[in-house]
Amino acid sequence: MRTIRVGLGERAYDILIENGLLAAIGADLKQRAIAKRYVVVADSQVVELLGGRLMESLTAAGVAAEIITFPWGEASKHLATVAELASKLAQLGLDRKDALIALGGGVTGDITGFLAAIYMRGIPFVQIPTTLLAQVDSSVGGKTGVDIPEGKNLVGAFYQPRCVYIDSSVLMTLPSAELLNGLAEVIKYGVIYDAEFFRYLARQRQAILNRDLAVLEEVIARCCEIKAEVVAADEREADLRRILNFGHTLGHAVEAASSYALAHGLAVGLGMAAACRLAVGKGIFSQAQAEEVCRLLADYGLPTKIPAEFSPQQIKAFLKTDKKTVGGRPFFVLPTEIGKVVITDTVSEELLDEILGAG
Ligand code: GLY
Predict the structure, then answer these.
(1) Does residue 140 register a pLDDT over 50?
(2) What are the start-end ranges of the E strands in the chain?
């Protein structure tokens, strides 16, 4: 088993990674004694796939737990779901000595973390992410929240889990589109932080796409290590944590322009390719390295050109409403070499038009 510590002082926690870990979670939770009773929160699909296995592990270890569910999908990620789940917790008599377990992908982790942050003004929770995207990104770092009609993730809290359990073997049954969704975020870590990891991803592409579990475990562990380091240095995204938004400035705008029909990872892939072109246009990144990044994205099957159906005007309009726009100026995370980025709000309108037009 690999253990990665997220060093946040009194809110520090472990990320545990192992193939088959689901079966050992009960015993580990028993030992950690985080709570006297747990409520597992899962969506209607994940509960069918993994709910029984988790409950077996908890029961075998003598951990008291029950499951509550909500309908699968991003459409559930709103305040009404949180209110309904909070009522269920109250009806079950859950109190401050109890805890929640988020079993599922990013939507489940975000909803459950936010519910844990506000139920009785805060109860502990643990994360069991079951998609690659959630394992390498959303389950670590304490960003929780829901969407409102005005935008995604606009209501939420920074609230850290007490532990994150990652069983890489659950990825064997993940739909390919979901794997791809997570791989965009995986490539992101290489570009922003670790050139050697970027090259490892190029070398191991076939093994990763074939879901070689030993390689996937290595990949997940490196992503979590990087995220843990960044979050420990800047939990509330005052500065360094903003590098995790590489590809997200234009990515979010394209995602919004598609009315969220485009998957997050694909949108981030497009955003990363566009950010590379912006960096070349600003004269801070070489054309050769930009091509290397775009080639890796394409080799993994991620699109690198913003579809023509999204006009530059449309994308720029969505940029203005994004959380990464402050005082009317969007910030961009741009690479200077593979493994290093800068954060800037000085991308000219002309350059943006050129890149979007050329996209
Ligand atoms: N997903 C970006 C972050 O957690 O900061």
Answers:
(1) yes
(2) 2-6, 13-17, 38-43, 65-70, 99-104, 125-129, 143-148, 151-158, 163-166, 325-326, 329-330, 332-337, 340-344
> What domains are there in the chain, each with its CATH number?
2-173 (3.40.50.1970), 176-358 (1.20.1090.10)
Closest CA to 138 of 156, 120, 118: 156
Number of residues assigned to the chain: 359
Token pair 């030992």 is at which residue?
31
Q: From the alpha carbon of 242, which atom of ligand 1 is closest? A: 5
pLDDT tens by residue, 238-258: 999 999 999 999 999 999 899
The C-alpha torsion from 176 through 214 and 138 to 197, rounded to 10°, is -100
Decide if 227 is catalytic: yes
Sign of the CA dihedral with 71 first, then 72, 73, and 79 last: positive
Q: By alpha-carbon position, which residue is closest to atom 3 of ligand 1?
A: 244
DSSP letter (8 states) at residue 45: T
Q: Is 324 in the pocket of ligand 1 (CB under 6 A)?
A: no
CA-to-CA distance for 137 and 113, rounded, in angstroms?
Answer: 14
- Placement of tokens 């890796």 in the chain: 296
Q: Which position has the token pair 């870590």?
A: 189
Measure 92 CA to ligand 1 centroid, in angstroms: 32
Kindly state the DSSP code that residue 134 receives in the 8-state scheme: I
pLDDT of residue 327: 78
84 is catalytic: no
| 78 in catalytic set | no
